[in-house]
Amino acid sequence: MSRRDLLAAAWQFFSRSVVRLYRGAARHLPADLLTGSFLFRLLLVGSCIPSAAVADEKGDAALTFPSAGTATHVSAIEYKIEICGEIRIPHSQGIRQLPMESRGAFRFEQRSLPTDLGGPFTLRAFRRFSAAGTQTTVGTGTKTGVSLSKSYRTIHTFGSDRGLIHVSPKYALPRQQMDLLQMPCDVLVVTALLPSTPVSVGDRWNNDDWVLPVLTGVEAVIEQSAACELKSADDRTAMVLFNGRVHGATLGSETTASISGEFAVNRMSGMITSLKATQKEERSPGAVSPGLDVTASIVWAQSPLSPESSTLGTLTETAPTDRARLLLLQTPLKLRLTHSREWHLFHETPSVLMMRQLRDGKLISQCNISSAVTVAAKQHTPNSEFLSDVTDSVKERNGRVVAEDTVRDDSEWRIRHIRAIGDASGKVIIWDYYLCSTATGKQFSMVFSHAQSDDKLFGDEAKKMLSGLQIARERPALPFR
């Protein structure tokens, strides 16, 4: 396995917990390492808090903080994160452990958006990044970097029952760019750590059940515990301590995350002005992620901006559509496609891509994408030849062809479909083979596979992905000089 691949895997490791797995990480890995893909994500932090009212000017008086979602705040946020630890990859000879270190820096403006919704749905904001990037070292010193493209510098962030969701108002995000935007102790989420009732110095309180999982990025919770405490307060600043531990699953992998830290609240404006936190995560290898044992140190600062000086003033909020939530995949095959956020790039070479679909932590299906033989313009591989190839392929796995049809035939694409059923380790498996032919003669093979017992869960995923196929535009050649 090349050092480049190990690095590509490295940064996005903290998935919605501390750094999420960077999906391009597992690219080019040998087959014996595919059991655990390098997909690392970075959870970042920034925080904007509704204004806080002070019951009394005395330091020992009770403080009252308004609930999130009641006002609009515009702020400038600078965020830094440092991560160290190791990744653990299943190997033919056991678990392979690799040390890793990552550093990230982010600078952005944020305008929080008022809403009457409750729970995680109160978290809504526009963000515009002026800088966003990470540098990662894996193993003995190979380094790689990821930065946010200018096309995706403006982001709409909103809370859901699955955590924070980031969308671009104009373009479908590539997963690598989306993962970069995931921040632990995110500014919006930290606001939910404030107490809902008046508190005095030394008082402790708990938070709603949704807060800690979203704060750490754990998707399915088995058990959790968390507490906050008003550490101190003077005429200007209140300091809040927080800590928590959550056990559950992230991306289908068993996960234990713990977090502790403190943040400062300006008593006059109610804005959280700074945060320092440490998050630790242990994760077992899973269907799309390696094992992890990592620690992240998070520091961010927030300062108010006048609406007039902000570049976010002209943006208006609209409900993100299902189309806006789609992700863009640019393949090395000169093929582009869009897909739902359930799909994760598991492995990539110059000629083959492997994607896996997870829903609620469960592996639903897999899709293999590869180049097929190129034919003359406006031609395609004969149906009989395609059928023969599929029949021979599934026969090796005790399979048989059960149906075939042409699902699309127009000026852009001709897509031929063959369905086969077979047995794999005692399970009935369904394979859907698609030969996708363009008018220029380029052809691509897409093979979806899922257990027959998951047929209803898989639904029309193949149709959705096929509907987003595009041929990547060739870059114009530079003029000869």
Count of distinct structural domains: 2
* Low-confidence parts: 1-59
Rounded mean pLDDT score: 83
Silhouette: elongated
Taken as a percent bin, the fraction of beta residues is over 45%
The CATH class name of the largest domain reads Mainly Beta
Estimated helix fraction: under 10%
From the alpha carbons, calculate the radius of gyration and give it in angstroms: 24 Å
Largest sheet: 12 strands, antiparallel
Number of alpha- plus pi-helical segments? 7
Q: What is the architecture of the largest domain at the second tier of CATH?
A: Roll
Distance between the termini: 40 Å
Determine the structural class based on helices, strands and strand pairing. Answer: mainly beta
